[in-house]
Design brief:
Elements lengths: L3 E2 L10 H7 L15 H21 L6 E4 L2 H15 L6 E5 L4 H12 L3 E5 L9 H7 L4 E5 L13 H11 L2 E5 L11 H4 L3 E5 L10 E5 L14 H4 L7 H39 L3 E3 L10 E6 L4 H10 L2 E2 L6 E2 L2 E2 L3 H5 L4 H5 L1 E5 L6 H20 L12
Helix pairs in contact: 1-9, 2-9, 3-4, 9-13, 10-13
This protein binds pyridoxal-5'-phosphate.
Amino acid sequence: MQRIYFDHNATTPVDREVLAAMLPWFSEKFGNASSIHSFGQEARGAIEQARGHVARLVGSRPADIVFTSGGTESDNLAILGLVRASRAERKHIITTAIEHSAVLNTFQALEASGVEVTYLPVGREGVVDPEAVRQSLRPDTLLISVMMANNELGTIQPIEEIGRIAEQADVWFHTDAVQAAGKVPIDVSALRVDLLSLSGHKIYAPKGTGALFVRSGVRIEPLVHGGHHERDRRPGTENAAGIVGLGRAAELALAKLPVEAARLAALRDRFERAVLERVPATRVNGAGAVRVANTASITFSYVEGESLEIALDLKGLACSTGAACSSGAIEPSHVLTAIGLEPAEARGSLRFSFGRANTSEEVDRALAILPGVVEHLRELSPLYKKPVAIL
Ligand code: PLP
C-alpha cells in the first residue's frame, strides 16, 4: 500500500539536502564550536552561517537568533526568560485561548506562581481581535504572546496590528511562529515582534532543533545555567549537526516559499471543495480567515475523530485529530471549542496538513478513500440519519 502523509503540521521528513548538509557534522567535522583550534573554528563558522540563514527566514539580524532544541523550548525561553528577567511590579501577561500547549502550559505555570494572566477568546473563524488585545492591557502588563499561525486551523493572527499595539503600550511581544515559518513571509521588523519561536522539524529539519529570535535590547534569563554559549542566553555545547540542518532547511524554505505556498493552497482548496461536495454534514473550520496554505480542519458531524483517523490510517491515509489525550479520556480540542464548536463536533474533526512531497494524485487517492470511510462510520452512529434523495 502506497501510504499518504497529510500530517505535516505534526512533523515533516528531513529534506534530503538538509540531511546531506548535516552528515559530515556527525563524523569527520566533530569540533566543539567553543574550541579555538581549527576543528572548533570550523564548527563555529558553520553555526554562524546557519544563523545567517535562519535570520534571513525571519528578517532579523543574525546576532538576534538563539538556537534551541525546538519550538517548545523557544516558547519557554521567551516567556519564562522574559518574566524572570523583568521587574516584579510588571506581573500581568496576555495570550490567547488557541495557543499551542507549549505556550498555554507555560502561562499556566506562571499563573500558578502568582503572575496574572489574560487568556483572550477568538472569534468563530479562529482569529483574535487586536482590539481585545488593546483592551486587555493594564499598566502592569509585561508581555503579549500570540501565535502567528494556529497549528489546528492554520488561521493567521493579526500579528502586525498586535505588534503596533504592544509597541505603543511599551509591552514586550512574543509570537510562536512554529506553524508560520516557511509558509508565510516573516519580517520581525515590520511586524514589531520582540521574540519569535521557530521549530526545525516543521520545516524539514530534524526534531530537536529550533530557534528563538530575541530582539537586541530584550533581556531574557536563561532556563538552564552553564557556559556563555549563545550570548549567555542558552548554555551548552551547540548541536552543530542540528544547527547546520536547521540553517539549510531555513534557506530552502525561504527559496521555495512563494511557489510552494501557491501549490499547496491549490491542493488544499481542491481537497476541501471536494470533501464538502462529496461528504454531507461537513464544514471547514476557519475557512473565512486568512490561513496558511497547507492546513485544512474539517468537521465531520456524527463521527468520532479518533475512529475516523484510525480507519483512514488503515486505508493508508495519515492525518490527525489534533485532540489531546489526557488520562484515557479524549478531550475535545481547546482550539475547536474556542471557535464555538460543540464538544461532539470538535471530537469529529480532522486536520489534514499538506507538505512538500504531496501531489495532486495523492489528493485524488485521499478523496477516493475518505467519503466511504466516513459513511461507514456514520452508519454505526445512532445519531446519523442518512440523507434521503428526494425524487
Ligand atoms: N508551537 C506550535 C504552534 C506547534 O505547532 C508546535 C508543535 O506542534 C510547537 C509549538 C512545539 O514545537 P516542538 O515540537 O518543536 O517542541
